[in-house]
Design a protein that fits this description.
By secondary structure, the protein is an alpha/beta fold. The chain is built from 20 helices and 15 strands.
Length: about 500
């Protein structure tokens, strides 16, 4: 855009008037919150295309209905029941050429949309590198090609992760270059000959803690190599937490990493974990991340921040230690027991992998084998041991993040916030100084459907608490009896040795 066309947009709201947007990943946690913020706070937006594919037999248009059934949209729908009419479903898949869109949809999107929010990604710490790269890295290439074919691309906002370069202790707001350009990786990925892609990835040093973080670093490199002449900005959020302010304080979706771990602890399923109690757990509220996306598109489109700027969207002055995190979590769970809890919550953090395995054997597997045996006798399937084995595989992938701290530079984050009009700062808040983790967690039971006893549990809270207490006592009994038996066996062994010697 020319200088005269860009600098006139002093306010974020002015910039978005009559704009048509294109969003990938709108069905996810961040994508849904971003969609809600755009529709509620920027009523001047003309239309929003959302890319959806069929999933588990649910067609894209049905998935749109499910998105707007989320609690996070309640405020929007109360104020503007017709808001969903602005959202147009485009069937497709980011891993396919032209994002898998039909010719008709592709022409419509490239003619009408001017802003891209590429939020979609495969977030997995355990899937194979090639699988993750096909979805994340090839997806980025396809989105860049879409941007090039747009008649009037004003901004392409890419959602990366603050841990895309987690093989470093200090991460600045720059793209850290790999030994080879992104196109070479993409060609190797497409050729599938002699595992060339895996060999190239293995030669990149220092090592990344998992395939997901490497795929995000590679995606950033692909953008640098293939989109340097486009108005692109990259957002790197850290661990995305609950909504802090608006529209629904405490809202967070089940299935996101920051939920699954606390739920596992709160339900009494996870009782021991590898982590440094004094390490910081870098959380950033999801509404702040969404606000940063909205402001970033405005900033790069109006050339306030240059193209290919990076924004480290992390906790900054506000972050918590694992000690405070676990303490707050346990207090929340005791105040209001989570439906379908297994045992009363209790968690021990250890900073040694071998000690973790020993304690996990005692706290997790010992009761699990006993409970599974009881289930077997009742004619049910084994499940607890299988779940704990899955947990151990996940812990192996997470152990780096649970035991290490990373520092982030945030000059661009601060600059973005300072550019905004005071009125926009109130609407799209990016400040984190007043965040209180206790208040955030206290609101979780009121904001989320998995705390609704009528929906998630056939038992009443009183009945569930009584059952959970019984299970907890039973688990303690199993562990206690085992300790007594081991103590007796040890005593007998020592007695025998003493007798033989003396």
């Amino acid at each position: 855009m020319s200088e005269t066309n860009t600098k006139q947009y002093k306010r974020v709201s002015e910039f978005y008037d009559e704009k048509t947007l294109f969003i990938t990943g709108a069905a996810g946690f961040l994508g849904s919150v971003l969609l809600e913020v755009l529709l509620r706070c920027l009523p001047g937006i003309k239309n929003i295309f959302i890319l959806l594919r069929s999933k588990k037999g649910v067609l894209p248009n049905e998935r749109k209905k499910l998105i707007f059934q989320k609690r996070v949209f309640c405020k929007l729908l109360e104020e503007n029941p017709n808001a969903p009419e602005k959202v147009i479903v485009v069937e497709g898949d980011i891993s396919e050429p032209n994002l898998g869109m039909s010719d008709e949809d592709f022409i419509k999107v490239t003619n009408e949309a001017t802003i891209i929010f590429h939020v979609a990604a495969t977030i997995s710490f355990i899937k194979p590198l090639r699988y993750i790269a096909v979805h994340n890295c090839v997806g980025v290439k396809n989105v860049i090609e879409l941007g090039r074919k747009m008649k009037n691309l004003e901004a392409l906002v890419y959602t990366s992760t603050a841990y895309s370069n987690s093989n470093r202790s200090l991460i600045e707001e720059i793209i850290y270059r790999l030994p080879w350009n992104g196109e070479r990786f993409l060609k190797a990925l497409e050729s599938d000959l002699n595992n060339e892609f895996e060999k190239l990835a293995a030669d990149c040093k220092p090592k990344w803690p998992n395939s997901y973080t490497f795929s995000k670093c590679l995606s950033e490199n692909i953008i640098a190599d293939m989109a340097s002449d486009l108005p692109v900005i990259i957002i790197r959020p850290s661990v995305i937490a609950t909504i802090w302010k608006s529209p629904l304080q405490g809202y967070v979706e089940e299935g996101s990493g920051v939920v699954d771990l606390p739920l596992g602890i709160g339900k009494g399923f996870i009782r021991v974990l590898v982590a440094d109690m004094n390490s910081r757990f870098d959380l950033v509220p999801v509404d702040i991340v969404a606000n940063v996306h909205v402001a970033a598109a405005w900033s790069v489109a109006t050339e306030r921040l240059p193209s290919l700027s990076i924004i480290n969207c992390t906790g900054g002055p506000w972050n918590v230690t694992f000690e405070l995190f676990s303490k707050t979590l346990k207090e929340m769970a005791f105040k209001q027991l989570i439906p379908k809890s297994f045992q009363m919550p209790s968690i021990v953090f250890v900073n040694n992998a071998y000690l973790y395995k020993l304690l996990a054997l005692y706290e997790h597997y010992l009761p699990a084998y006993v409970f599974d045996a009881i289930l077997y006798l009742k004619g049910s399937k084994f499940r607890l041991v299988k779940l704990y084995k899955f947990l151990d595989g996940l812990v192996d992938q997470l152990i780096f993040f649970l035991r290490n701290e990373i520092d982030f530079k945030q000059e661009n984050y601060i600059a973005l916030a300072e550019q905004m009009d005071p009125r926009d700062k109130e609407i799209f808040s990016m400040y984190r100084d007043d965040i209180d983790i206790v208040k955030m967690f206290d609101e979780i039971p009121n904001a989320n459907p998995y705390f609704d006893w009528k929906v998630t549990d056939k038992l009443t809270p009183k009945e569930r608490r009584e059952l959970v207490i019984k299970r907890t006592l039973a688990a303690h009994l199993v562990k206690g009896v085992t300790l007594i038996l081991l103590g007796y066996i040890l005593y007998k062994c020592l007695y025998l040795i003493f007798t033989l010697i003396f």
